Write the structure tokens for this entry.
Amino acid sequence: MDSPIDSRQAFRSFNIISTTKGVDGDRDALDSTNAYRFGGFEGSAKYRLLSPFKDPIGVALRLEAGYLLHDEVDGLDQHERYIKPEIDFQKDFLEDRLICSVNFGVEWAWGKQPAEQYPRELSFEGAAGVAYRFAPNWYAGVEIHTRWEYPLFDLYNFEHRVFYAGPSIHYSQERWWATLTWNYQVYGKGVDEPADGQTFAEETRQLFRLKVGFNF
Amino acid sequence: MKSEFLFIALPASVLIAPSAFAVKYLTVEQAQQAIFPGKSFTAMPVKLTGSQRKAIQQASGVRVLHDEQQVWRVSSGGWFIVDEVVGKHEFITYAAGLNGDGSVKQIEIMDYRETYGGQIRDQKWRAQFVGKTSKSTLKLDSDIKNISGATLSCRHITDGVKRLLAFYEIALKH
């Protein structure tokens, strides 16, 4: 009953299919490209330090790693490997039906060429969100996330930063779940392609994400 | 041309976890006989007033979600109550049997619809509630042990019982 397993969720989520894309691309040769394809493999492990269900605030360490076969913006072939440690904070209200979360992470990525100019990049990422269970099985929420990129792992070599925000809706049954998210780039600044408060060198104006999960 | 859309369809995620699926374990009649075998029951539903709700919330520290409580008077004395608490995705329905003095006789999980946390049906875990009264602490990791992987369910059932014991003191005892 007192086993510490509760605090470890190793490889609880393992993405066997990753990205597809449909981009009216910024890169000239890729304009109006739309396609779906197998994106790669992603996995994560989570270690919970404090539980949001019994401690004043939930704190967890999460480690994500992946191998991606295509650039997620323009779909170019690549062999990207990345690793991303992050720290998650979660505070629940209303019998855990209202969930507030914030997380911060750092990503090291290799193999980003030829889709991007540099072979490796360091990124700082952060996100905040609120979700409310408005009916059994259904959550609706809003989220904002940001990403700051530094090519060649060089903190003096700033490339771009971007902020996305938007709503999401989540449905869950005992054996499967789905989350649909729409994000809009509310602010972006890039050294490669300054564009009046938004950046498109490696980012998009809008982003739709559909995740489907199965429990077994 | 600027980027317009990025459509990322689906990481189809595979969650590696113990599974429990929607199961109706006990009907009301079965739960009644499991807690008070051989006894008869008289339905006495209770509709809470605003002040009673507030008093229960203050006494237990737990929010009252419903105005009406399903209650039965047991022929031998004591009470049988059907209640529900929030689960991760749906409500968890459970029954609590109270002795004539208001202490917990037994609790039974009637309906559980979550993927995780079905271990709350474990008899040893439920036995921790036996004898608890409105004066008991009823706090997870204090006088009620948690079950790893079922923390949310344990917490909400514990809070639910604490609320029911306050409900007994305020709405049933007199």
The first helix of chain B runs from residue 28 to 35.
